[in-house]
Specification:
391 residues, alpha/beta, 2 domains, seven-stranded mixed beta sheet, 33% helix
Amino acid sequence: MNANILYFQSGGPTSVINASFLGLVEEYRRQNIQGHVYVSRFGIDGLLQGKLEEIDIHNPPDILFRPGAYFGSARLRLDPDPQSDQALNVIKTLQDYAIDYVFPNGGNDSMDTAAKLSAYALFHHLPLRVVGIPKTIDNDLYGCDHTPGFGTAAKFVANATLSVAMDDATYKQGRVNIIETMGRDSGFLAASSILASLKGYAPDYIYVPEVPFVLQEFLDKCAKTYKEKGRCLVVVSEGIRDKNGELIATSSSREDVFGHRQVGGVSSFLASLVEKHGIKTRAIELSVLNRASCFLPCLRDIEEAKGAAAFALNSSIHGQSGCMVCILREERDEYAVRYQTRDIRDIANRVVYLPKHYINASGDNIDARYIAYCLPLIQGNATSLDENGLI
């Protein structure tokens, strides 16, 4: 068959977003499709500017373990009006390059972009198929058991937690260590720190956005645990909020184009309050390393990122459009997944939260049942380092 396809990366990158592109190219070759593979640099910017870049599918870039979005990303919100200047620019570019299939690779907000591209095509009677490829370390895409990018990020958080705990165990009298993970709205990443309990270093407290955070209770618990144990290990999501839904700490009052405030800095804020009680404290903000930790590659995450992209191409070939690929877990003893598509309008701008049954009764830690959910997702080791020890 003949088909020209367009791929672009959108939103915050993950350590396996580039693996998704390679999975798409590998399936394109396997299907022996004749045509051209294009990318839009910096998200939809290339589409808007009328400039797409062709990729040599027989010599794709060596980006399997590369952090960041290799083709560039952006947080741009398309105008919903199919007759707007943005829409007309997009349609012209798609026509100029004779694009048949479009594959946006992103999360909740990126699927909003995908939904609008699909709507543009329908309005202008363009025979275009749009299938989204999932991606987010937050693990909060509707319709998915988990998302590409989360497994590697969870693996990093679990091992970072272990490393901090073991380091602190060096001393007879330790600290209150407060580790901050990403997670603006959902607590999946912070919850993954409970995997450290498998090595005997469970966090004393884990706080997630799904439970209202009470500052004085936190301070009292830290002081009590420190007095009893001589140390205290706390993990917090950057997006923890009080009973009124207000962020405990934020690095900016500004909002992005999708209405999200920039979060971060809660560990430093909390550490400053603990220190006022005369307790040695350290804030550890994992920040961008949550998503850029390609030096701890997760093979299962890479394989599923590729698998989701291959399924996206096959779905479009079989006539599907206006949908996103979802990863679902099979109900069997041995871990296995399957892929299916879901209407992209069900997913765009929608957030999935950490299920309450994974949070303990007091709301300050994670139930051990979460381990059975999360542990299979971090499986598989590889090296992403060269002979000099660098990525």
